[in-house]
Amino acid sequence: MLLRRFIALCLLCLTALPALAVSEKDLLPVDQAFALQATAPSRDRIELRWDIAPGYYLYRHRTSVKAGPGFTAEALQFPSRGEQKHDEFFGDVETYHRQLRAVLPGTAEAGTQTVTLEVRYQGCADAGVCYPPQKRSIEVRLPGPGGEQPA
Predict the structure, then answer these.
(1) How far is CA 142 from the centre of its chain?
(2) What's the count of helices (H) and strands (E) in the chain, helices before strands?
């Protein structure tokens, strides 16, 4: 009787394993899972927005932005709080689902019309699979000195 239960339990575990496996082909392409946009509503403020697909999240501590020449950036500003999560690799972390909006304040040099941003981020699927760290280069057009967009 005990042997039958053990065999049944082993068979049940074996049939459940394929359901737990998530392959790369089951995941969205990274730029679909984390769609990134950047705009400059003023010469001293660049706004970044990630639209995060359902079932995915971004790590706050793995998100950073560096501005290229022509824009002296301050620290990247995040929303007040993300969602708290205990990660088996990173420990206690903040994550963002659905959307992340961050602001890069700074000062544009006179005559600068575009700024190149180096954006780094990392996210995962709720299913337990993480993407490798990402690095994107984005050009952002700055408004003119009076606030008008350059032609």
Answers:
(1) 23
(2) 2, 11
By the 10 Å C-beta count (0-12 exposed, 13-18 middle, 19+ buried), 85 is classed as middle
Pairing of strands 83-87, 64-67: unpaired
Structure tokens at 105: 């304040």
Q: How far is CA 48 from the centre of its chain?
A: 11
Give me the chain's average pLDDT, please.
Answer: 86
Q: How far, in Å, CA of 109 to CA of 60, rounded?
A: 29
Q: Token match 């998100």: residue? A: 63
**Residue 31's pLDDT band (cuts 50, 70, 90):** very high
- Cβ of 46: how many Cβ atoms within 10 Å? 26
pLDDT over 70 (residue 4): no
Instruction: Please tell me whether residue 14 adopts helix, strand or coil conformation.
Output: helix
For the cut 90, the answer to whether the pLDDT of residue 90 exceeds it is no
What's the whole-model pTM score?
A: 0.79
Which range has highest mean pLDDT (6-15, 16-25, 78-87)?
78-87
Which letter does DSSP use for residue 25 in this model?
A: G
